[in-house]
Give the backbone structure.
Amino acid sequence: VSGDRRLTADVVVIGSGAGGAVAACRFAEAGREVVILEEGPYLHAPDFTEDEGALMARLFADQAMRTTVDGAVSLLQGGAVGGGSTVNWMLMLRPPGHVLDEWSRHDPGMADLVAGLAPHLDRVEAEVHARLVPDDAHSPSNRALLTGARALGWRARAAMINARGCVRAGTCTLGCRYDAKQSVLLSYLPRALEAGATLHEGATVVRLEVAERGGGGPTPPMKRVHAVVRDERSGNARGRLVVDAPIVVLAAGAVGTPEILQRSGLGGGGVGRYLRLHPTTAVMAQYDAETYPLAGIPQSALCDEFLQRDANGYGFWIECPGLLPGLAAASLPGFGTAHLETVRRLRHLVAFIVLVRDGSGSDRSMGSVWVDRRGHTRVRYRLTRHDAENVRAGLESAARLHLAAGARSAMTLHTPPVLVHRADELGAVRAASVAPNRLGLFSAHVNGTCRLGADPATSGCGPTGERHGVPGLYVMDGSLLPTAPGVNPQETIMALASLLAERAIR
């Protein structure tokens, strides 16, 4: 787009990630005229040069510098076409049964959604070529996780990934230059475009307007979507884009979706509240053998022995991250010469990440997204007492897992780090503070800020996925999830968007 344009459509989809792309595909293939608006750039295999410094800024929201207001948690969200599916590590995990049971109890309308989810999980897995990683394809890091779990008698397993012809380069964080990762760039978006949808990259939605009256009968009121189209390199506005449609699907993520609603005067109630992050930290370990954590499938296995460890049925799970040099250097604790020496040992390091299913012991809002008086979007978050205990237990378990797998030593991301060499030293890990900014925390799973529910005071959308009080304004992204899913959420978001889109079409 160059200059100002005015369009009409049947459906406007804001965001092109796991939820938005699936929704756009379903609507377009049902014969609807679909316009997709995406804030980030549209990149393809030749653009994924594996240059970490250049690509992190292009592929992630806020150039990979998004954090909570206190700087305690880094938020790694996709910021290009394809969203998180372009940069994630390909895990396809179904929501656990106990989580689905909790969602069914959360609200009467959720029971019907949960009951209808299974066939969409099946369908999504088939459409993105989700397959179990074979035993001979695990990287040394993932093999260490499986070896340590087996030695301890803990539950661990291979996982499914959405890949076809994976060459195990290990650069999934930077997009897939081999077109092996079956992200929405290769699955749902091409299908949507083939069915007639149009995609506008660099289009930042600034507000929505809703007409007071609909078209009569079941027709939803018309909406007007205002966007500014910017040049990626300069950031300068190239024009304005206005799209009128009766149906709008918000899929801008759990930060972007409440931000747009609030800027449009459609916030309040549960919008922007009940943020869930799966707070994540890591334990690094040094092994005698060369592990070279820069290559191989980043996440091909997981240990879910402690997913329901506390009295509330919440806990944590352990995975391996893709450890690119820049990401590793930014994550490793220490300063100066000590930090340099740790980085130089990268070929012998293995990282296990601990992901906590947060919200244990409380249905109060522990995190929020809001637009401040200056127009800036802010994110606030804190752990519950039970979540903090699960973080501590997770750190101890990850360190124990390393030692059982044969690591020479294990080190946390505390400031200063806790270093252990033997199992009888693990008490120091458990005792270390997890207060804000005392431990490196991050999250790539940002959910819950427009959650499903019947009560507008504590939720953003009803069981249809529509914003309370605004027929035809849907949310179809991770912000819908009523509680933390307890697994990497890509498959859950895709299946939920598929289910809600098909019901909206009917």
